[in-house]
């Protein structure tokens, strides 16, 4: 069994649609203010544009998401 923890940031883009950014190696003890400040900096930087649409325009939320994978079998190492 493998468990991973990811920080998922949700923004509104310039077309008012939700866009997620997942950070797999984020620190697990970040405060609300630290995350909000970082998200606001990303928005102000205007570095993420896709098809002429600013992808991260307004911060909406942030969550830690845990994912657990339980293997039933794994033959990937067999030759």
Detailed description of the structure:
This protein has 79 residues and is α+β, with helices and mostly antiparallel strands. The chain has one domain (2-69). Helix content is 18%, strand content 42%. It contains one helix and five strands; from the N terminus they run ββαβββ. Strands 2-1-5 form a three-stranded antiparallel sheet, with helices on one face. A two-stranded antiparallel sheet has the order 3-4. A hairpin with a 2-residue loop joins strand 3 (49-50) and strand 4. The radius of gyration is 17 Å and the shape is elongated. The model has no long low-confidence stretch (mean pLDDT 94).
Which runs of at least 5 residues are low in confidence (pLDDT < 50)? Answer: none
**Beta-strand residue fraction:** 35-45%
Q: What distance separates the N and C termini?
A: 23 Å
Broad shape: elongated
User: Which structural category fits the helices and strands?
Assistant: alpha+beta
Helix content: 10-25%
* Rg from alpha-carbon coordinates: 17 Å
Strand order of the largest sheet: 2-1-5
Protein name: DUF2922 domain-containing protein
InterPro entries: DUF2922 (IPR021321)
